[in-house]
Amino acid sequence: MTVTRNTKNVPYYQLGFGAFASLEGMVDARRSPESPGALFYVDHFFRGDGGCTLPLPVRGDDLVVFVNTEREPTVENIDLLSGEAEVFFGERLPCCVTGIGGGSVLDTAKAVANLLTNPGRAEDYQGWELVRHPAVYKIGVPTIAGTGAECSRTCVLTNHKRGLKLGMNSDFTVYDQILLDPELTRSVPRDQFFFTGVDTFMHCFESLRGSYRNVIVDRLSETAVDLCREVFLGRGDMQSDDKLEKMMVASYIGGMAAGNTGAVHPISAALSTVLHLPHGKANCYALSVLGDIYPEEHALFMEMKAENGIDLPPGICRYLPDERCEALYRASIIHEKPLTNALGPDYKTILNRDRLIALFRAM
Amino acid sequence: MTVTRNTKNVPYYQLGFGAFASLEGMVDARRSPESPGALFYVDHFFRGDGGCTLPLPVRGDDLVVFVNTEREPTVENIDLLSGEAEVFFGERLPCCVTGIGGGSVLDTAKAVANLLTNPGRAEDYQGWELVRHPAVYKIGVPTIAGTGAECSRTCVLTNHKRGLKLGMNSDFTVYDQILLDPELTRSVPRDQFFFTGVDTFMHCFESLRGSYRNVIVDRLSETAVDLCREVFLGRGDMQSDDKLEKMMVASYIGGMAAGNTGAVHPISAALSTVLHLPHGKANCYALSVLGDIYPEEHALFMEMKAENGIDLPPGICRYLPDERCEALYRASIIHEKPLTNALGPDYKTILNRDRLIALFRAM
Questions:
Q1: Probe site for chain B from A1, A2, A3, A22 (most B CB atoms < 10 A)
Q2: Considering Cα of B143, then B148, then B153, then B157, what sign does the dihedral take?
Q3: Which residue segments constitute the domains of chain A, with CATH numbers given?
Q4: Is A15 on the interface with B (CB under 8 A)?
Q5: pTM of the prediction?
Q6: How far apart are CA B62 and CA A99, in angstroms?
Q7: Would an 8 Å CB–CB cutoff place B14 in contact with chain A?
Q8: What is the per-residue pLDDT across A306-328, written as a single tens digit (0 to 9) for each?
Q9: What span, in angstroms and rounded, lies between the C-alpha atoms of A107 and A97?
Q10: pLDDT tens across B302-354, in order?
Q11: Which residues of chain B neighbour A229 with C-beta distances below 8 Å?
Q12: Closest residue in A to B243 (Cα–Cα)
């Protein structure tokens, strides 16, 4: 029974099919003579011949940047993007930064908004409580549900130089406003919908199975897990209207829980850092070999995967050279906090090099 | 599948036994040379011989006001309190307003914080979206759980002149920070703990049984109802440590749901307006005669009441003069929105004068 840290909620949300139409009013309410222009980061998925395929509320002073999400955001990329925005807006700041996309785009917008009001480079702020000044006002519009990036106080950035994925963990990173329109997730390819959706299931059950807990986080995590079960195991297609909405709410409530992760996320992070696997898919590979640690959730996940006809081709690490397996081991084991949460202080004994490398080989 | 209104969450919360110790840091962080003094409203329950029995972080420039909670807050009382604060702080504003108590005190602090930055009198702001300017920064510390006042965007005020209870419904009314310390609720008398706690159960099930719904509100309401069942029907005393914490979280999550009420609250409001019954107890009388409309929840409530040895003496309206029953009828039936939510547009036919008066007589 300890006291939680002072926890920040996303201050404003709006939910519903068609909620995207509210974006214009939200952006316009931020415009002022000092900061007339708005900055938009949009998933390249919405890049059409004539510009954006979504009805963006763009005006003359605005900058729209399409973000390539084939790779997850890197610190170098954030530096380039914030430099580009600084050149575009000159002496002024944008009136707001809107991120429209999946976790990568939402995190990109958060990171740039921090950098626009804080000097230096993205990697200077990778860690905890390093951001000094409030970011530019941010609006988050998820177009795929599950990451929880619309709620979280971090923005995960890959730093290849330091061989790690680490976010700018700060209350300033939290979106000021989020817009949850399930309609935007209708066109997400099935595999991606599944891999991203189960991210909510993963981080919520990891929190519930961990040792760092509190009643608010537990109850919100349970609620999000229930919603994921309904989406992936309930009657009807996982992309039917009511499930699109449930999945978006699962991501929001799971993100608001913001519990601590466990053994899945460190292994997943290693797969992303070393093999560039996208986060959601990497989680699935990680859990697929963690039946010993999470028997119940492993079984549930295998059922969800089968039920929705999702393929996870085996053997991705089987023939990797030893030094890459060593790199995977190192990139997993550095995640001290989630591993301690899942396995206790002796996590290095429980999940030793041999066992961990065997797990990667078995994927 | 409609779009929700843009919904405000409480931006910051901290939870845990002992969280009250954080209040000093939170108040001090707001102090400035322009606004050195803080304003505290504290339930008179905590008035001791030498001042407040809680360790309040008071400094020389501060004003501490004990609030008598025998009667629920009235518009006249709010005018007096805000006048007193204006005289005390002179040209300056307090750096923050902290409310420490149950729903009445939390609502008092919210109402005064609005009036300090908005001209006129409390009754000018009874209604929806009437508050024009952001309130003084507010910290809410519930010392009894269940009202949801720590989360809500209203502060219920009785206006005897207009014969109604109506709040200042505004995003500006929402607390900026809440501090959830279950330890503070340990000394609450059993009856009061029960009557206030079941308020969460009531407003959450009313929302779930209503027609104005959305997935976020539903899931949070269900979570809060589950917690209430555990507190009032689970093993162990309702004021054991784990239940004190669960009840505080139920109130928070139920308050965050902020669904629409149904048939209980209008009848309860009439009992409070006409007979001055406190809100929680009035809810209980209301539900006690609504078995026809809410059979399942009525049975559950009767079980909770019996399980915890709570007495609800019958006959409170049996011998009331007819004109007072007429007043109860009128004070119920004006609550159009909750009654429509519960019973549809024909609510006046379903709950006609004769039936409603018979319900009051049966209490």
A1: A3
A2: negative
A3: 12-185 (3.40.50.1970), 190-362 (1.20.1090.10)
A4: yes
A5: 0.95
A6: 43
A7: yes
A8: 999 999 999 999 999 999 999 99
A9: 11
A10: 999 999 999 999 999 999 999 999 999 999 999 999 999 999 999 999 999 99
A11: none
A12: A215
